[in-house]
Amino acid sequence: MDTAPHIIPLKRRRRSPSQLAALILIFTLSASAQEPSLSERAARLDADTQTLKREALRINRELFIMEEEILHPAPTQLTVFVTLDVGQFFTLDAVQLKLDGKLLTSYLYTQRELSSLQRGGAHRLHIGNVDNGEHELIALLTGKGPEGRDYRRGATLRFVKGQGTKYVELRIVDDAAKQQPEFVFNEW
């Protein structure tokens, strides 16, 4: 008994060259109707890229915030800002910041950063952890004083660090009466 299926050979139809061309054209048109054009694909790819960039920036911002919270928890945090008021009698070049005799940071300002400070900006000079208790903060400022002379001066702040974040502002102010700069600490 024969259980194999029977294979019936199909006759091949001969197609004319014009029929073949018509079939190729129909196939090409149906394939191109399904696929978007090159410009549409480029636009979609560009939109996807922009979406990915926005998502990467959002994630980067969240990671930065988490890193700040982990490295500098609020109960032990000390943040020091530098601001500039007028700046006719002093052109800031650099700041060196010490806490309890230990160097925290040194910063050399560019012309662009000075311009931002003169327009009312604030520079976060330092953020770090400090134990609760009494501390001494010393800022050494260098720059050009009245009449373009080299100028180096220090300012000292004694403060008590309690629970919570401690913010300190080093404000450089012109004293018109003395025609000298003043370096004032504000804390909050």
How are the SSEs ordered, and which strands pair?
Elements: H1 17-34, H2 38-71, E1 77-85, E2 91-99, E3 102-108, H3 111-118, E4 122-129, E5 133-144, E6 150-161, E7 166-175, E8 180-187
Strand content: 35-45%
* Rg on CA atoms, Å: 36 Å
SSE succession: HHEEEHEEEEE
Q: Quick one: biggest sheet?
A: 4 strands, mixed
First-to-last CA distance: 102 Å
- The average pLDDT is 85
Low-confidence spans: none
Under CATH at level 1, the class of the largest domain stands as Mainly Beta
Which structural class best describes the helix and strand composition?
Answer: alpha+beta
Count of separate structural domains: 2
Stated plainly, the CATH topology of the largest domain is called: Immunoglobulin-like
**Helical residue percent band:** 25-40%
Named CATH architecture of the largest domain: Sandwich
What is the β-strand count?
Answer: 8
Shape: elongated
Strand order of the largest sheet: 4-1-7-8
The number of helical elements comes to: 3
